[in-house]
């Protein structure tokens, strides 16, 4: 069995490869990357490195030669991701891979998250293929809130318009381990996994956690979306990320990042990593 991981030197991909190396020989892993030099540490560990960008359809077909399973880690070029994902899917189909797992977003078919449309379109495209597909609908990463550590240190507050909405986040390594399990298990797989942390936390919980981590009081500064946007813009946040943050908080307020069930902890066979552990590691 040969397993290919796209974006294998990225933040999630590198962790997936680490988790795979604990389960299968390095000779069974193919790291698909844009930059061979960046992937040299993987090659040094015995992983096969193949260069193929998401925009290079022909290179992707070559990269998947002899591959049995593919993990398609969603791209990060917003607005271009659907076409890029289609290239990966088409290449996997051309090489007759037995399984393609895709990192999507929670409840993407009903979500208003700003990342949802391209994920949904990718899922819809996958449904038209002949591939066996597993959708890994990853919830929010703890690491998405590392910037909150610095902000809380300087302002003593969590700026939010998310109201009482909760977030079932987990460590990026938890999601990576889940992907590795899906790619290596002999057990029957579900077509869709809604993946989130064991604990759904509110903004008040985040402030409390930051208080413990920083050793100083942190409060919640609950504002309107308009006030949040104005404050972020004044702080120099680029307009794209102002819009993204405000829209994400609106989705949180609607409960769209509170993931029901225990798919993630069941897959990895242990409780998910507490938010405090990830934030404390950053400090």
Fold and architecture overview:
α3 packs across α4, α4 packs parallel to α5 (116-127) and α8 crosses α12. Helices cover 43% and strands 14% of the residues. It has helices at residues 11-21, 40-44, 57-63, 81-94, 116-127, 146-155, 172-184, 203-214, 225-234, 239-253, 263-268, 275-282; strands at residues 3-6, 29-33, 48-51, 69-72, 99-104, 133-138, 157-160, 192-195, 219-222. It has 2 domains: 3-138, Rossmann fold; 140-170 and 196-260 and 272-283, UDP-galactose 4-epimerase, domain 1. It is built from 12 helices and 9 strands. The chain is globular, with a radius of gyration of 19 Å. The protein is of the alpha/beta class. The longest helix has 15 residues, at 239-253.
Chain-wise SSE layout:
Layout: E1 3-6, H1 11-21, E2 29-33, H2 40-44, E3 48-51, H3 57-63, E4 69-72, H4 81-94, E5 99-104, H5 116-127, E6 133-138, H6 146-155, E7 157-160, H7 172-184, E8 192-195, H8 203-214, E9 219-222, H9 225-234, H10 239-253, H11 263-268, H12 275-282
Parallel strand pairs: 1-2, 1-4, 2-3, 4-5, 5-6, 6-8, 7-9
Helix pairs in contact: 1-7, 3-4, 4-5, 8-12, 9-10
Contiguous helical run count = 12
Query: How many β-strands, per DSSP?
Result: 9
CATH level 3 topology of the largest domain: Rossmann fold
- Rg over C-alpha atoms, rounded to the nearest angstrom: 19 Å
β-strand amount: 5-15%
Order of helices and strands: EHEHEHEHEHEHEHEHEHHHH
Main sheet: which strands, in order across?
Answer: 3-2-1-4-5-6-8
Distance from N terminus to C terminus (CA atoms, Å) equals 40 Å
Helix content percent band: 40-55%
Give the number of domains: 2
Mean pLDDT: 97
By CATH, the architecture of the largest domain is named 3-Layer(aba) Sandwich
Question: Low-confidence spans: pLDDT under 50, at least 5 residues?
Answer: none
Which structural class matches the secondary elements? alpha/beta
